[in-house]
Specification:
By secondary structure, this protein is mainly alpha-helical. It has 14 helices and four strands.
């Protein structure tokens, strides 16, 4: 190991191998190449003069970064992105003219930064779950082990080792909830008390983040601290409260139909099924325990898909 250059202790001492890879040059430049492939595929779909042969050539070299060529080129042009465009083109002579076509440096730079941070958060999330699980076992094992609690380095009160561990666990749980939210995921309680996670898209995320900026400043009633949506009384909003809210908002949209949360949920399921054609995915997202329940609700759509499928395949050419 070289000792004549600065090395970050965050990497050398504290980061796992998985986290080191996420922030490594390999991850960075392989992501650049995947982004260039995605760009070429999209431009081909839009009608640009790009062949499948060129795309296949790019895919064949997406992971074997020729660093020596890129470094030599950067010494000449002083531009990291264009150096790697050149290096990729050396490996892919047929496709070199379409690499980075119509894009700016921000296309690979900014998108890669977002991807790297997202992958890092996913790894932290996974490790947080493992830490919480181990701390829970530790807390249960030593729940009756007496110890003396200190505050400001002074003896404070008797407690147990397990009790102290639960306080550490609670801090990690708060971190986990925050990560879930940042990864577009919410923990919910479905009918019957079943705990589940739902994911939300970027449109919903933007509204939720705006709302949460105000929500985190609200002091709730005791026992409702972890509720995301609150009633006027600063308690977790009830099912009836949600129904009233939906009805009130719906009146501003239409006076012809009576819109309820159930109808909104059903409409979402219909749209999801039309987009994906995956009845199992719809069942999972809607929280149905039995996929046959989902099939009953969307039987007409299934028949329509079968009808269209019948004419989708030609048995013989004209």
């Amino acid at each position: 190991m070289s000792t004549d250059r600065y090395v970050s202790p965050l990497s050398e001492r504290y980061a796992s191998k998985e986290m080191q890879y996420i922030f490594s040059p390999d991850m960075k430049f392989r992501t650049w190449r995947r982004l260039w492939i995605a760009l070429a595929e999209t431009e081909k779909e839009l009608g640009l003069n790009i062949t499948q042969e060129q795309i296949d050539e790019l895919k064949a070299h997406k992971d074997d970064i020729n660093y020596d060529v890129a470094k030599e080129r950067e010494r000449q042009v002083r531009h990291d992105v264009m150096s790697h465009v050149y290096a990729y083109g050396v490996q892919c002579p047929k496709a070199k003219g379409i690499i980075h076509l119509g894009a700016t440096s921000c296309y690979v730079g900014d998108n890669t930064d977002i991807i790297v941070m997202a992958e890092a958060l996913k790894l932290v999330q996974k490790k947080l779950v493992n830490v919480i699980a181990e701390l829970s076992k530790f807390a249960d094992k030593y729940k009756e082990q007496p110890t003396l609690a200190f505050t400001h380095f002074q003896p404070a009160q008797p407690t147990t080792v397990g009790k102290r561990a639960t306080l550490w666990t609670q801090e990690f749980l708060m971190d986990l909830e925050d990560l879930d939210f940042r990864n577009n995921r919410l923990r919910i309680i479905r009918k019957g008390g079943k705990e589940d996670f739902v994911y939300f898209g970027d449109e919903v995320a933007e509204s939720l983040y705006d709302y949460y900026a105000e929500r985190k400043n609200i002091v709730t009633k005791e026992g409702h601290e972890h509720a995301l949506f609150l009633s006027i009384q600063k308690r977790r909003i009830s099912v009836q409260g949600i129904e009233n809210l939906v009805s009130d908002c719906a009146r501003h949209v239409t006076t012809i139909k009576h819109i309820t949360p159930h109808k909104l949920r059903s409409t979402y399921g219909t749209s999801l099924y039309r987009e994906t054609g995956d009845i199992y995915l719809v069942a999972e997202v809607l929280g149905h325990n039995d996929v046959n329940t989902t099939r009953k609700h969307y039987a007409a759509l299934e028949e329509d898909r079968k009808r269209r499928a019948a004419s989708a395949v030609s048995l013989r050419k004209e």
